[in-house]
């Protein structure tokens, strides 16, 4: 069986959440630290298992 459908998801940027204070921000640039408190952030668009 051949699948002709392609996943339409194409993010223009990431959506990040702070691991400490839960601040969220959308950014086209890759964020590594929270702009509110300076803690580490994670990209919410990345699948987690």
Automatic annotation (TrEMBL):
It comes from the Archaea. Residues 5-49 form the DUF7129 domain. InterPro entries: DUF7129. NCBIfam families: rubre_like_arch. This is Rubrerythrin-like domain-containing protein. The lineage of its organism: Archaea, Methanobacteriati, Methanobacteriota, Stenosarchaea group, Halobacteria.
